[in-house]
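Input chain follows. Return C-alpha cells only.
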Amino acid sequence: MADIFTKEKRSWVMSQIKSTNTNIDNIMNRILEDAGPEFKRYPAMFGNPDFIVPSKRIAIFCDGDFWHGYNYLKKGKKPSSPYWAEKFARNVKRDKEVTRKLRAEGWTVLRFWEHDILKHEQMCVRKLHKALNPRKLTVLQTQHFQNDFETSS
C-alpha cells in the first residue's frame, strides 16, 4: 500500500508525534513522586530512558504499545506495509540492545508497557517498589509466607 502523503508531508506528520511529556510519562512521573526517590526525567544518557533513579542505578522506560511493537503479530494486527514491519522489528531489536547494554553497565532496567501504566497502575507501583527496595520486599514476602504457614498448621 502506497503512502497517501508525500515524503515531506509524512516527515512533518511523524515529527508532530510527541515523544516526551506523554500521558504515560506523566503518570509514571506521579508514581515516582509518590514513591519518594530522587529521580531525573529524560536524562541525557545512552538509550534515552524516560527516567532514572541515579542513587539506585535504575533506568525506567515507558514504552508505547504501538511504537515498541507490543504483541502486534499475536494480536493479528499485521503492519500495513513492509516499512512498518521493519520499523517495529528495528524498535524491538534496539530496545533489547539498550536493555542489555545498560544491565551490563550495572543498571536495573524497568520497562513498562503503555497499557500496563494506563490500566494496571498498581502493578507498575509494585514493580517499581520491588526495584527500589529489593531486600525490604523479600522480608515482607517471607513474613507473608510465615503467616500463611502458621495459620495452616
